[in-house]
From TrEMBL:
Parts of the chain that traverse the membrane: 33-53, 59-78
A Pfam family annotated for this UniProt entry: DUF4191
Region (Disordered): 210-232
Protein name as it appears in the record: DUF4191 domain-containing protein
Superkingdom in the source lineage: Bacteria
Keyword Membrane assigned: yes
Length: 232
């Protein structure tokens, strides 16, 4: 019991520090976040308290209002923090890979399966929707990369659906903040065992990055070298 209590005590400061850092980051992109979140809490609590006085139960409604206000503040803060984070990531090389890492269970993601010297990148995700190729960079440069990867997929897995899209804000492109929802909305056509077979075939293809010239300059921030990747 003592060990559990000590662990919880040690974890709380870490959570509070993380919340504080998230707030500071969000406030840089959204200076009014504090006022908006506080306003949501005050209005929500005030509405419940007013209803409590009207029905002659101010204490009960006050407690309920406090809990609901806290929940509303957390939801609003979370959404604005997420929006701020996407705003800072927008346009950064490798940003889509970071989003893919958080798509959820059932998806296997492989970052940077193809790349140009200008750091235009194609990532791959495998799930119940099949194979999804996600490109970020100049559309004119990534389209040939996508076409090449789709040909490879069709050659080794002709019966597996292959989807592709480009991350961006232009016409026909998918904004970074909608990458996750776009993947989750795709029709589910593969079963668990079929997904395993697809991943096995892709692993058998070998590491595409090992046979591709690396771009000049530093690797994109947050990008990981795939297993088996070799520097030349």
């Amino acid at each position: 019991m003592a060990r559990k209590s000590n662990a919880e005590t040690a974890a709380n400061p870490g959570r509070l520090k993380q919340i504080a850092l998230t707030y500071k980051m969000t406030r840089k992109a959204d200076p009014k976040v504090g006022l908006i979140v506080a306003g949501v809490g005050i209005v929500t609590f005030g509405v419940f308290l007013a209803i409590g006085f009207l029905i002659d139960h101010p204490v009960y409604l006050g407690i309920l209002g406090f809990l609901v206000a806290f929940l509303a503040m957390a939801i609003v803060f979370g959404r604005r923090a997420e929006r701020a984070a996407f705003g800072q990531m927008e346009g950064q090389p490798g940003a889509a890979a970071a989003v893919l890492d958080n798509v959820g269970r059932g998806w296997t993601t492989t970052p940077a399966i193809a790349m140009t010297r200008q750091q235009d990148i194609v990532h791959r995700a495998v799930g119940k929707a099949g194979v999804v190729l996600i490109a970020e960079g100049n559309p004119n440069r990534v389209k040939p990369l996508l076409a090449n990867e789709k040909k490879k997929m069709a050659r080794i897995m002709p019966d597996v659906p292959v989807h592709d899209f480009i991350v961006g804000t232009g016409e026909g492109e998918v904004p970074l903040k909608k990458v996750r929802t776009t993947l989750l909305k795709l029709p589910r056509v593969l079963t668990g065992p079929q997904i395993t077979q697809v991943n096995d075939k892709l692993r058998a293809m070998g590491d595409l990055m090992s046979n591709m010239p690396l771009p000049k300059g530093p690797m994109p921030k947050g990008m990981k070298m795939p297993r088996g990747g070799k520097m030349r």
